[in-house]
Amino acid sequence: MRLADLQRKDVVSIKDGRRLGRIVDVEINSVGTIEYFVVEPKRFFRFFGSSEESTVSFKQITKIGEDVILVDL
To answer: Helix (H) and strand (E) counts for the chain?
Structure first.
């Protein structure tokens, strides 16, 4: 699966069903292993300097479906 495929899916918390946003970036360590995904909430208006990005480690992902990525935060 490619990063572009993951970026099309909504990231949803399994604890409360809250939609966290979509993956916008990935952090890779020096060995080439994924450290975490950067998730940004989907907003209609984005203002300069206002960023509410969060991170999700690969271990926190419980299921990758056709439309969503379920995470346990």
So the answer is: 1, 6
